[in-house]
Amino acid sequence: GESVGLHLPTLSVQEGDNSIINCAYSNSASDYFIWYKQESGKGPQFIIDIRSNMDKRQGQRVTVLLNKTVKHLSLQIAATQPGDSAVYFCAENRGGKLIFGQGTELSVKP
Amino acid sequence: KAGVTQTPRYLIKTRGQQVTLSCSPISGHRSVSWYQQTPGQGLQFLFEYFSETQRNKGNFPGRFSGRQFSNSRSEMNVSTLELGDSALYLCASSLGHGSSYEQYFGPGTRLTVT
Q1: Which of B48, B105, B106 sits opposite A97 (nearest CB)?
Q2: What are the residues whose beta carbons fall under 8 Å from the beta carbon of B40, sequence distance 6 or more?
Q3: Which residues of A touch chain B, with CB atoms under 8 Å apart?
Q4: Three-state SS for B26?
Q5: If you measure CA to CA, which chain B residue comes closest to A94?
Q6: Which residues pair with B88 in a beta bridge?
Q7: CB distance B4 to B23 below 8 Å
Q8: Pairing with A58, which of A32, B32, B86, B111 sits 20 to 30 Å away (CA)?
Q9: H or E segment to which residue A25 belongs
């Protein structure tokens, strides 16, 4: 069936450290993934995306890695800042329909 | 450019009533999708409208319906409200239909059913 899952519901890191948020998916035909950040009281905000023809994509302080062999993707945030505190979702875009994982709450300790 | 706007932001209804939520997409965007967010089920896709036609539908009962107007604004309606319909309803807009387009989310409408 359709599912996109996350390994951990919460993650606490020290300011300045790197954060890694993981996500697993079940559909081997999945080919487009997006990471979203949702702050309290706001809708999800696009962070970075990756298609299945890539293994890695980098943005500003963020990197997404895709391992199609084990159907796993991860979001790495470099030099985590207090403003990074939020819930992070991985999602698969399947023909315009987003299938979301459950989310990981990232807390950044000053 | 203004972002996606949703009205109202908060709503309290009673079981059995119906409710209509509104979404105005980003100017120039023609696709609007709706999602329900609850602590238990997370974010779930409701439906997508493009050019006034429903293009995609999630696994929700027929009490959930929507429509899109010629200016791309969209409404969703929930009839015969149940306690379990309490949720944050999010609207997302994109330039077009399909997986090539990034979706931009609004702040959501918080619906509480009592």
Answers
A1: B48
A2: none
A3: 31-32, 34, 36, 41-46, 49, 89, 91, 93-103
A4: coil
A5: B99
A6: B37, B110
A7: yes
A8: B32
A9: strand A19-25
Mean pLDDT for chain A overall: 91
Distance CA A22, CA A104 (A): 9
Q: Do B105 and A43 touch (CB under 8 A)?
A: yes
Q: Do B98 and A46 touch (CB under 8 A)?
A: no
Whole-number Å distance between alpha carbons of B58 and B67: 15
The helix (run of H) or strand (run of E) holding residue B57 is strand B53-57
Closest CA to A97 of A21, A42, A27: A27
Amino acid found at B57: K
Handedness of CA A20, A24, A25, A31 (dihedral sign): positive
Q: What is the pLDDT of residues A38-88, one digit of tens each?
A: 999 899 999 999 999 999 999 999 999 999 999 999 999 999 999 999 999
